[in-house]
């Protein structure tokens, strides 16, 4: 069974930083591109960032570009999201997701259960 488990969420003040992790098991992590997605309270899903296999490329949503950094450690089967200069509007549940190899593009086929980030003074 595919498993993705996010961690690192919590309460942080505006302007602060957090680093999220996503631990992966039951598939070959290094062979898959990965993404981070979030859902703010009462709102829909928002794609945040993508990283290709071998860290060959990275992309970001405009809302987080310049503040968030996606990375991966294939030896540890772990995906990361470094979040700096956090704003109250960054408050959301953050999900990691695997990008499918069966469909062209950036379709995400497996998701973690999410970790809550709350940005408030």
Offer a quick outline of the entry.
This protein is mostly beta strands. Helix content is 0%, strand content 50%.
Describe this entry's structure for a reader.
Strands 2, 4, 5, 6, 9, 10 and 11 form a 7-stranded mixed β-sheet that branches. Strands 1-3-8-7 form a 4-stranded antiparallel β-sheet, with no helix packed on it. The chain starts with a strand and ends with a strand. The protein has about 120 residues and is mainly beta. About 30% of the residues are buried. The radius of gyration is 14 Å and the shape is globular. A hairpin with a 5-residue loop joins strand 4 and strand 5.
Which helices and strands occur, and which strands form pairs?
Blueprint: E1 3-7, E2 10-12, E3 18-25, E4 34-39, E5 45-51, E6 58-60, E7 68-73, E8 78-83, E9 92-99, E10 108-111, E11 115-119
